[in-house]
Each structure stands twice: as structure tokens, then as C-alpha cells.
Amino acid sequence: MLNISFTNLTLECGTDEAGRGCLAGPVTAAAVILPQGFINKILNDSKQLSEKKRETLKPIIEEQSLAFGVSHIFPKKIDEINILNASILAMHQSIEQLSTTPEFIAVDGNRFKPFQDIPFETVIKGDGKYMNIAAASVLAKTYRDEYMLQIHEEFPMYNWKQNKGYPTKEHREAIKKFGPCKYHRTSFRLIPEQLSLDL
């Protein structure tokens, strides 16, 4: 059973991102403020849940949360500022979208930059420990997956509906065969041979 939140504050938001390790598509973050006393037995780190469970949880989180926000940072910006900064920017933007200003921010992972003057804490594997971070992980993952399904229609040869832009063998083979497209992150090692130099 996950802890409801990191502090006892009423307005604590949890934030998490999805798609950091992908070769294509955005890095997506969500921020969620859950009401005190919120309980859900299924809710967990989105990586531990089936797609069906994530889809079941998404409307529950949206309806029962006090506030939530979701933000995509796209490949052009990722290539410009690097994936770590893009992940933090996505989190900041999702917190900005909250209709209520949080009193505290619980962040999944170990890196974050101060947002306004709101106190925060980074929690390694926080999405498996705190409900508000787990809720943010579910929204980030489901919103990103939805986006990847949309762009799959435009470039079906990469099979993003299946791999969601992650570096699967099949995805790398498709990049090798068709080359990268506008949704790929050019600063990432898209195919392993990119590292080899002819000296």
C-alpha cells in the first residue's frame, strides 16, 4: 500500500515524467494534488501497471484529484536543452497548470530545480512509494501513450503504437531502414553505429 503523501500538508502535489529514455516523441510530465484520505488499491507506479489498469485509473485520478496538470516537451526542445532539463521543464509546466498552488512538491527521481518558492523533495522510486507521485506517473504515461498513438498514424513504419518510441530492436531497425523523422530526438543515439568513428 502506498503512502498517501510525503508531508501532512493538504496541498502537496506529486510530479513525475514519462518517456525520458525514448528515441522519439515528447517527454511528458504530470503533477497531481490528491485529496486527503484518497485511497485506491490499484494505484501504483505506472510501470508496474498494465495498460488496462492505467486507462482505468486515468479518469479516476482526473475526477477525484483536487488539481492536475500535464505537459509535453517536444524533440526540438529536448535536443536544445537536453533530456534532463526537458524533463524538469515538463514537470514545472505541469505544476504551473494546477488550478491550486501547491504548498509542497514531491518529485519522483533525484533531480529537480526549484519551482517558484515552493519547498520540494526528490524521492528515488517515489512513484512506488507515494500516491500523488504514482497518480502523476499514470497521467504522464497515459497522455504520452495517447500522443504516440496519434503520431503512429503519420509514421506507421516505426510501430510507435507498440513501442511508444522506446529503443526496441524493431524501432532501431526501422530508423536504420527509413531514417529518422521529425519526431525523433536527433541528440539521442538513434542507432548504435552512430557512435563508431572511422579513424
UniProtKB/TrEMBL annotation:
PROSITE patterns: RNASE_H_2. GO terms for biological process: DNA replication, removal of RNA primer; mismatch repair. Its EC number is 3.1.26.4. GO terms for cellular component: cytoplasm; ribonuclease H2 complex. Keywords: Cytoplasm, Endonuclease, Hydrolase, Manganese, Metal-binding, Nuclease. Its main location: cytoplasm. InterPro entries: RNase_HII (IPR022898), RNase_HII/HIII (IPR001352), RNase_HII/HIII_dom (IPR024567), RNaseH-like_sf (IPR012337), RNaseH_sf (IPR036397). Residues 10-199 form the RNase H type-2 domain. It comes from the Bacteria. Manganese or magnesium. Binds 1 divalent metal ion per monomer in the absence of substrate. May bind a second metal ion after substrate binding. The keyword Repeat does not apply. It catalyses: Endonucleolytic cleavage to 5'-phosphomonoester. Its cofactor is Mn(2+); Mg(2+). It is found in: Cytoplasm. The keyword Hydrolase applies. GO terms for molecular function: manganese ion binding; RNA binding; RNA-DNA hybrid ribonuclease activity. A divalent metal cation binds at residues 16-17, 108. Endonuclease that specifically degrades the RNA of RNA-DNA hybrids. Belongs to the RNase HII family. HAMAP family: RNase_HII_B. This is Ribonuclease HII. It comes from Spongiivirga citrea. The gene is rnhB.
